Amino acid sequence: MAEAHQAVGFQFTVTPDGIDLHLSREVLKHIYLSGVTSWIKRAIRFKNGILTGVYPASPSSWLIAVIAIMSTMYARIDPSLGMIDTIKRTLPVSDYMTVQTQTVLSAILFATGLWLSLILMLRYILKALLSYHAWIFESHGKMSFCTKLWLSLVKMFSGRRPLLYSFQASLPRLPVPSVDNTITRYLESVRPLLDDEQYNQMEVVANDFKRDEAPKLQKYLILKSWWATNYVSDWWEEYIYLRGRSPIMVNSNFYTMDLLYVIPTHRQAARAGNVVHAMLQYRRKLERGEHAPVTMVPMCSYQMERMFNTTRIPGIETDFVQHLSDRKHLVVYHKGRFFKVWLYYGGRHLWPSELETQFQRILDDTTEPQPGELKLAALTAGNRVPWARARLKYFSQGVNKASLEAIETSAFFLTLDDEAHGYDPDKLRSLDLYAKSLLHGKCYDRWFDKSFTLIAYKNGKLGVNAEHSWADAPIVGHMWEYVLATDCFHLGYTEEGHCKGDINKGLPPTAKLQWDIPLECQEVIEDSYMVAKEIADDVDFHGCLFDVFGKGLIKKSRTSPDAFIQLALQLAQFRDKGEFCLTYEASMTRMFREGRTETVRSCTIESTAFVRAMDDKNTKDPNVCFLLDLFRKAADKHQNMYRLAMTGSGIDRHLFCLYIMSKYLNIDSPFLKQVLSEPWRLSTSQTPQQQLNMVDINKFPRYVGAGGGFGPVADDGYGVSYIIVGENLITFHISSKFSSPETDSYRFGQNIRQAMLDIRALFDQNDKKDVMSRQTERSL
């Protein structure tokens, strides 16, 4: 036991002469080093806190301001217009406060006040600049003079080396759209999905809402937007995630895959050791705020604060997110046993080789799980209320409480899986099985409440299962990109596949968590497992690697890759079901403080017109120019909607908040009820790629990520996540339910593939016509 090992360092003996203390020099050394590390960490955080607090100025600028004011005083010039003299008169005169000291102190106080005023002014100027969004609506490759001037001013006021959280105080608040604009855009979005009679009824209901209930709700919502940092995010987290009582496994959690083609080592413990060490490096930089801001345009980094040391705690009516600071241990699950692993030794992070040693000890451990321990994590996979009640009844005291606290207060959760997964082109459905394993596993071998669970397979492949309430997928993707690049290009492995570095044989052994789970609790665990298993068995997944062409060829057609893919999804959906449906595409609103996501309604009047023309069976020889014109109109419409969503002019978050406000005010709104009950039968999301640019994909084409995915949102619909990898690959992650006779993930994947090829064929045919017309002109 680790506790017993550590206790050897401190012993005492009671003798007739008193108490004889024995202190281990080695233990005292580790205590000293831990203290030094802790104080260094505090000093760095304090320094970075000051740098962030005075941004966009710098601490040295204060000294410049003081010197400048003092210089003017010696030159007998008063830049304060008498304010220094006023400050001087308020200071007391004493033996310690001479007239000269009063003058100097007054000048320093004035200079400090002037410096702080300049900081506030610079922040408001930067906030005003960041509120300008016209640049995002300009055509790709074209930049107006106003945008060039704006970009230059942003760079000038942003300072030289901004830290991760430097821009937080300068980011604008998310604006509340007008009710008229939201209702108009909503009606436009549902027009292609309703017949004339249904649309006219919806128009009447919407106009009644706009006239009667909306004005009062909007006033309160505007009031909230003035008071709260973000008028959406707190309600979104609470009502969309934390108040949900159904299982979060599959329904809410999402996954991220490893590198698609490469496995740096097949040694499970070594791969886990390198990656855990890389995560600790990332966490250290995150806690100190030393990561660079993500993009050229500042984005909110608020969600990143809760990446580590975070757990979703179940409750009867609502869950809550518990975030702690600087947790120093990790909990590992392997073959039904839970182990506590310390991440620090002698005041420093464990080296990769030391972590490999600890993980190998767990893999070599042959002890059997304790009664009820094997499927214990199924409690986090089932319904929330039974888990909350079980937690209060069976895990509130004794060894169960201590062990559960070890899990919930850990930095994150690691599963050393006893299966092998990953993409293998020679194996049928290898990507499908890999995704299902990451999404739900065996329903009891991931702790679904942790901010994320790192999964290390026995063949060296990795993956992450992430809880959704605390952050969105791009945040996890940022960390994952850093970790994989650090693992492969900075840490590396020996020729035998082990972690580099010496093996420290003096590490304390890992501690196996102890449980005393009664039979009643074991029945609750089994019930949760059966609920989760039914959900997992119903997930129909298909991974589709589209490598015929990619972003490079699409951009040559002067089309947004995202718009191209979204129109292909609309075409695939129509061919799959013979009808259109309400379509969800996630867009970020992180250009605003504490922004999360907004919905882009991808099924539009323009996209349906293009799809119907593409599949018009009455036209034997379709007009390519006509189809391309429809395509470009639909793509432009989609791009405009995406830009509106990013700049705070979306539809759905506004309507969602109006609905929540109506509940608080006990206002019954048939319109809002209908809007919020409409199912998203096609839910889509693009996974961002290369947020950090740590790996040159052109130089290392095989070191590309496979993206990630999520479960189906509607019982009779599809969930589609896609990642645009480099110039020549697009990976689709498609999920649906076996229980629905209307869906088939593999069939939908084939429809997507064919839709992509058919749209591309339009451009090829048009290019051929252009070539032929040029040749004809030359011959004439």
Automatic annotation (TrEMBL):
Domain of life: Eukaryota
Catalytic activities: (R)-carnitine + hexadecanoyl-CoA = O-hexadecanoyl-(R)-carnitine + CoA
Gene3D superfamilies per the UniProt record, alphabetical: 6.10.250.1760, Chloramphenicol acetyltransferase-like domain, Choline/Carnitine o-acyltransferase, domain 2
Gene Ontology biological-process entries: carnitine metabolic process; fatty acid beta-oxidation; long-chain fatty acid transport
EC number: 2.3.1.21
Keyword Transmembrane: yes
PROSITE patterns given in the database record: ACYLTRANSF_C_1, ACYLTRANSF_C_2
Every Choline/carnitine acyltransferase domain range: 174-754
InterPro entries the UniProt entry points to: Carn_acyl_trans, CAT-like_dom_sf, Cho/carn_acyl_trans, Cho/carn_acyl_trans_2, CPT_N
GO molecular function, one term: carnitine O-palmitoyltransferase activity
Keyword Transmembrane helix attached: yes
N-terminal signal peptide: none
Family, per entry: Belongs to the carnitine/choline acetyltransferase family.
Protein name: Carnitine O-palmitoyltransferase 1, muscle isoform
